[in-house]
Write a structure and sequence with these properties.
The chain is α+β, with helices and mostly antiparallel strands and 77 residues long. It has a domain of 42 residues: YefM-like fold. Helix content is 31%, strand content 19%. It has 3 helices and 3 strands. It has a 3-stranded mixed sheet.
Length: 77
């Protein structure tokens, strides 16, 4: 973990943020030797959904008119 003065961070903020993102190493920003802020890299905690996870959850009907009956189907249109 790196430590740097706020004046240095202010001068090179974009460069430092890019380094934090690339190296995944955090930085402590100090003001007059006392910690002021802690810059940490973003970690994506969301898991990607697995393909086909809901595949068994749906029922596909080949004939969508018959379950309603033809009279109800005409009324629903």
């Amino acid at each position: 973990m790196k430590t740097m003065a706020i004046s240095e961070f202010k001068t090179h903020a974009l460069k430092i943020l890019n380094e934090v993102a690339k190296s995944q190493e955090s930085v402590i920003i100090t003001k007059r030797g006392k910690p002021l802020a802690h810059v940490i890299p973003h970690r994506n905690t969301q898991k990607k959904p697995k393909a086909g996870k809901l595949a068994d959850a749906f029922v596909f009907e080949k004939d969508i008119i018959t379950p309603l009956g033809e009279d109800s189907w005409e009324a629903c249109q």
